[in-house]
Amino acid sequence: MADTRQPPPGAAQGAPPGGEDEDRAGALGPPRWLSLVFLLPALLFLGAYMVYPILFSVYRSLWDAAGTEFVWFDNYVKMFSSPGTFIALRNNAVWLVVAPIVVTVAGLIFAVLTERIKWATAFKLIVFMPMAVSFLASGVIFRLVYEQDPERGLANAVITTVQDTVSPAGAYPDARPREEGDLPAAPGGGYEVPEQVSAGETVAIGLVGVAPEDLPGDAAPAAVPQPGGPDEITGTVWLDFTPGGGGEEGAVDPEERGLPGMEVQLVSDGQVEATAGAEPDGSFVFEDVGSGPYTVQLSERNFTPPYAGVSWLGPTLVTPAIIGAYLWVWAGFAMVLIAAGLAAIPRDALEAARVDGATEWQVFRRVTVPLLSPVLMVVFVTLMIYVLKIFDLVFVIAPGSVQADANVLALEMWRVAFGINDQGLGSALAVFLLLLVIPAMIFQIRRFRREES
Amino acid sequence: MSDDAATTEAPPAAGGGPETGSDGAPRRTVASRLVGALGSGLVQLLLVLIALFWLVPTLGLFVSSLRSPADNASSGWWTALLQPAQLTMDNYAKLLENAVFTGSFLNTILITVPSTLLIVVIAALAAYAFAWLEFPGRDWLFLGVVGLLVVPLQVALVPIAQLYGGLGIYGSIAGVVLFHVGFGLPFAIFLLRNFFAAIPRDLLEAARMDGGKEFTIFRRVILPLGGPAIASLTIFQFLWVWNDLLVALVFADAANQPMTKALQAEMRQFGANIDIISSGAFISMLVPLVVFFAFQRYFVQGVMAGAVK
Q: Transmembrane residues, as ranges (chain B) (predicted)?
């Protein structure tokens, strides 16, 4: 079924040449030595670049780093016991379990959904496109996507935009009291004024830590706190810092500005009784307050730092992040193969199920997927083989500092054999990779023989 | 990629008994049509979002390559969509003056073209033998080739590096080319042999009857009929070698490195070299993209034939 080649013009159906009894080497057939002429270049290459290297790698893996001492299976023991290679093995296992499934499922979903739309060809071209470009280019593309700074990396820009809509960042993330003791931390976060206040009193709350250029544009010279009416509590929250020096700490000086929009709360017995926002000059008023006494606090919301985004390429998330890039590259491959399989499903089978009253989901689950299973298997096994050998994407996307955390077998093999020049361990890793693909090799040979017969 | 648009008729969402086309269609049908239309709208929306998810990262690379390093360091590429004045060709101009990069571009061509030609010629000869010549052990030998399809190239890095060291071609373009030929052959033979084998026997017998020599038959009958498969293989191999990083990393020295290796070296200082990396990566993508869009049918066929490689 993966065999979607166009038959040559006029190709007769079902006339495979191999394995027929008829003797073609008869009078008309070419002499046998001629086969060798046709085959020789290929056999030389296959011998030199595949057969010999396999044998040599097995042999070399039994020798030490420099190749001077025969060490039996020490390299294989080292492979499973050294922490570096162990991380590579573990990551490869994660890759193998997650990536083929995710890509196959995505391909299946895309193939099914595009069956119904008019611009299916355009969609398939777009999703398939990454298959044509190098892993290096895809890696560069995703390094940009995963850039940590939300100002620059697309993934974090999207996430922080959503996050900031849900819980907006405070206006003054860096504001703080001049001394630790001036304003103790409030129980619910933020800062509280140590002395309790009652109606008719005023509070002055001076903060520092806000750079003058970070002040809101409407910040006006701070108002000196003025007592309000008998049932009011008033005050000023301002930036207690005179640019260029001077000024008195704890007092509102002429050069100093208010902190507009600062959210001030009146708390009694742990309950927030009233909330006020500071004016451009930093003044605020609580009207109609009860007898009190109250605690005045600056709510935590003022100081919420902006969401810094997800550390995609940090040690914990780097492998899932690279698997995301892998999905981006390979989904088109799975989609196109599965779509070809879908197109080959007889419409009658689907129609019959629908006439029998099956819902679309039942048709998909009970008819489509079973009929597709050979194709899904081929896609899945192919992806497993490529995932085992994954190298470029990890090498390019993982920054140097986390490359050890993102390590995979093929990368470790390269690092060991050509970075630290331990060709014994490097050969052992290569042989191990070869052993891992042997089941796929058997699957492949079986499938081929079945198709031939 | 066949266009299946012909079968876009939305199936009934529920039940879906045969419609009796009488006056006053039953309510259920109207409702189910509504559900169907709504569902189709949702599917369209979902697919648009997915397509954006695939397009936007590439657009990001392209726009980044058109911005100065200072702009890239201070704000996201998407801001350039609102301030097109940021866009500049400076990175590309700088890249074209960078001898390391222009040299690596040339090396990529010097590696890719001979590799592709050699693979296609050698594989076509062998595939013809496997498909149409009789010799002892033919089927077993071909099974061997099928088995070699999945061999990871890591297994050859150490042995061939030692071999090249002995031969004195370690680091050379020839070494990289020959390695690609060796590892490209199993797939190439596999693909062409299956295609050649489907050519009708009568055509070959007739040519042999006319006294054609095998090489003549190969040239006059097999190659023209095998055109589509050879085109698929050529395009697939061309892109495969063009995009390779690992083989170049091991076997090409600094003077002979292709673009992928040259760009990879810049990645160690990703932030500082973003101007070279983004514009260089985009240039390295251009040829594959042009080939892909021009010959997408052949490329897709090549990739699909490579399933379980």
A: 34-56, 105-133, 140-161, 167-192, 221-242, 276-295
